[in-house]
Amino acid sequence: MKQGTSLWNVSRVECGEVTELQDEVAVEFPLTLVVNGKEFATMVCSPLDLEVLVIGFLASEGIIRRKEDISSLSIDEDTGFAYIELTKEVPVVSTMEKRWIGSCCGKSRAFYFQSDAKTARTIMNHFQLEPEVCLQLMKQFHAEAQVFKKTGGVHQASIATREGLEVTFADIGRHNALDKLLGHMILHQLRNKEHTVLFSGRISSEVLLKISKMGIGFLLSKSAPTDLALKLAEDLNITAIGFVRDDRMNVYTHPERLKTDVAPSFAEMNKGGIDVD
């Protein structure tokens, strides 16, 4: 099995002094997916947890919905190929049709990719978390960031319940880290009603859509959101919380899921985001 990091000889310059040492860097690995005998896509990723990455990527692209859609999956790490046989034909999407505008769950939001319109889900559950639980989960999330601490070059994503983190994945690609979560959920048939996603990077529209495809309505990130991501979060009924650091967080959408005495007043103020002490 390939490693997620490698050693590189570097010259460190500090205060005018030069020191020769070895630095640990993230490995960048190209993986080509061959689906039903045809090359489907090549992704650049960390060579870790490749099975769940492949499954999650195919699900995110709308190629599969459940693990039973895959009849066989094998990965040749030496050549960088993953061979997948499906129980059905692969949908053909013309590159001329890739830019596609459609209604977001009957509302005004527009999708950029047709696969997103097909696979994004409006979250219907009303799962709640206390602010102190959110902060504790983020502390656990940071403690799990071993590859990042070694390299500073990967993103990290976790699925958690109020009791703690259930699974954590790291990857050089932020989308890959989230696809690994989705692949894990599909492979293990994980129920999603009372789960939270924790993420190390910016909450972009693409990140938000991947969360919706997991069917999870609670997202915690240590970073900032974009406005399109928040518009999608509003439409898809996802609670997006950013800048979860130390003892603070910004609740941007659907604050009713945050279990606190002041939560009811958030709804009136939510358009600009709420900062929680």
Automatic annotation (TrEMBL):
Entry annotated with the keyword Phosphoprotein: no
Keywords: Cytoplasm, Molybdenum cofactor biosynthesis, Transferase
Compartment(s) where it occurs, according to its Swiss-Prot or TrEMBL record: Cytoplasm
InterPro entries: Cytidine_deaminase-like, FdhD
GO biological process, one term: Mo-molybdopterin cofactor biosynthetic process
Gene Ontology cellular-component annotations: cytoplasm
Major localization listed first in the record, in broad terms: cytoplasm
Claim: Cytoplasm is one of the keywords in the record: yes
UniProt-annotated catalytic positions: C105 (cysteine persulfide intermediate)
Gene Ontology MF annotations: sulfur carrier activity; sulfurtransferase activity
Taxonomic superkingdom: Bacteria
Residues annotated to bind Mo-bis(molybdopterin guanine dinucleotide): F243, V244, R245, D246, D247, R248
Pfam families on file: FdhD-NarQ
Homology family: Belongs to the FdhD family.
Biological role: Required for formate dehydrogenase (FDH) activity. Acts as a sulfur carrier protein that transfers sulfur from IscS to the molybdenum cofactor prior to its insertion into FDH.
Name used for this protein in its record: Sulfur carrier protein FdhD
Organism encoding this protein: Halobacillus salinus
